[in-house]
Amino acid sequence: MSDPLVLIPARLAATRLPNKPLAEIAGEPMIVHVWRRAVEAGIGPVAVATDAPEIVEAVTRAGGQAVMTRTDHASGSDRIFEAVEKLDPNGRHDVVVNVQGDLPTIDPAAIAASIIPLSDPAVDIATLVAVIVREEERTNPNVVKMVGSPVSPSRFRALYFTRATAPYGDGPLYHHIGLYAYRRKALQRFVGLTPSPLEMREKLEQLRALEAGMRIDAVVVDDVPLGVDIPHDLDRAREILAARASDPKVASTFGSDPMPLL
Questions:
Q1: Sequential pLDDT tens for the chain (262 residues)
Q2: DSSP assignment, residue 194?
Q3: Domains of the chain
Q4: How many Å apart are CA 16 and CA 98, to the nearest integer?
Q5: Residue 261: Cβ-neighbour burial (10 angstroms; 0-12, 13-18, 19+)
Q6: Taking a C-beta distance cutoff of 8 angstroms, is the pair 68, 51 a contact?
Q7: What is the pTM of this model?
Q8: Which of 42, 47, 76, 209 would be a feasible disulfide site paired with 214, CB 3.0-4.6 Å?
């Protein structure tokens, strides 16, 4: 049995949408919506890892937990590793789930599904994919594809990630969703590795793990969550969450109490 800790890295220095984590959606900052989705997943305590006091204030005002980290981290994985070492120095939590801070519409069930492959001791890192249904996304380099070998009808062992259209031939293509569940020891190893040749060529951090011989398995989920990168994405997120809030059939646990950290 694993004991996961969910961490959400967030910073204010986005170039295409400045102060993105604090952007208002349905009356609350975006980072609070992501925190709520992670709490609703119900797999373990949740904290936001940030270098901005403004983000700490927004999260704590909503009843959440946040931890300050250094400003010089190159990636979200580096930031969450610092955060987990601060929050859990005794190593109680053996799984660390990294939920991107710009996914306010993510399904909590998808977050929960991310840890399933880690029941297999051979798996170092788990992630999510969804079938590509729009033809234009098959050739879009901004849509990262997972090439994998099936382990079960809903799970793959990832062999490669690419911005190219792959694999070749008939059959579905899979859109990679950048949410990761790490064994804690795997996270420690990963952040200690230097950027790899394929990682730098494709500009995909997860290739560093594959090049180092680490195993990544991917769970198939129904939908790709909306990532907020530009003002248009923010408008769409507002529309989606407003529609959910106005639909009485949509179950919501917005008032859930967060799980205690320790």
A1: 589 999 999 999 877 888 999 999 999 999 999 999 999 999 999 999 999 999 999 999 999 999 999 999 988 899 999 999 999 999 999 999 999 999 999 999 999 999 999 999 999 999 999 999 999 999 999 999 999 999 999 999 999 999 999 999 999 999 999 999 999 999 999 999 999 999 999 999 999 999 999 999 999 999 899 999 899 999 999 999 998 887 755 544 433 444 444 4
A2: P
A3: 1-104+228-254 (3.90.550.10), 107-224 (3.90.550.10)
A4: 22
A5: middle
A6: yes
A7: 0.92
A8: 209
CB-neighbour burial class of residue 124 (10 A; exposed 0-12, middle 13-18, buried 19+): buried
53, with CB counted inside 10 A (0-12, 13-18, 19+), is: exposed
